[in-house]
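Lab notebook, bench 4. Still working through the backlog of constructs that have no structural model yet. Next entry is a single chain of 147 residues. Request: give me the structure tokens for it.
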Amino acid sequence: SEMATRTGILECKLTATERSRVEYRDTARKLLAENELLQTQVTSTERDTIEVISYLKREDLAKDQMIEQLQNQLKTLRQDSRKERESLIEDFTYQINNLEKELHNKKTEVDNMIEELARVKDFRRKKNEMQKKEKSTDCDSALIPLL
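Model written out:
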């Protein structure tokens, strides 16, 4: 009976050990499946992260290129603007100089005309004086023979 008891105990232990081994295998399989799922998720997340970083780098590069293009356009526009401003200054300076020369010439003409007019007035005055003298001399000479 001790043997039967021992056998019963051993059978119970064997059954419990077998049950524990089956549970351990099931748990190990579940953990393995869960580990594979997590590994797949990590790999997918890493791939997504790499894609996002690559996209952001491409966008950053495109923006850098756009900034460089815009800076070059701005530089060209500034140069064109400076050249146009210099050209306008040169044109207006030329026009101002020509107008100043014309003004000087016109002023000289006006001064000459004023001078000529003064001479004409002086001439007329002298002519009138001479005519008056001549008339007065004519009258005197006409009076002289009468005396």
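Notes after review: The first helix runs from residue 2 to 146. Helices lie at 2-146. Flag for follow-up if needed.
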